[in-house]
């Protein structure tokens, strides 16, 4: 179940137009009587709240809850570039390890 606030007498963590920082609480999710505060992984602004009905709304895994505009523009990395970067980092690590061991 989705809860927009920590308690019934408290204001919602975020609303449409709210700005939040990385680590700020966004909402509370209840699963099997366990209440978990969900924190923002990045900073941004809530463009739209996608939950109808407010607190106590049943939600599904993977269901979008908010439309958010992040403060930083995320650039998707090409899988070939990522593989090349990882390979180069691994080779630098291996070279540094062998140099440190004197072999």
TrEMBL record:
Keyword Hydrolase listed: no
Keywords: Biotin
Domain Lipoyl-binding: 1-69
Pfam families: Biotin_lipoyl
Keyword set includes Metal-binding: no
Classification via InterPro entries: Biotin_BS, Biotin_lipoyl, Single_hybrid_motif
Record-linked Gene3D superfamilies: 2.40.50.100
Protein's recorded name: Acetyl-CoA carboxylase biotin carboxyl carrier protein subunit
Native organism: Sorangium atrum
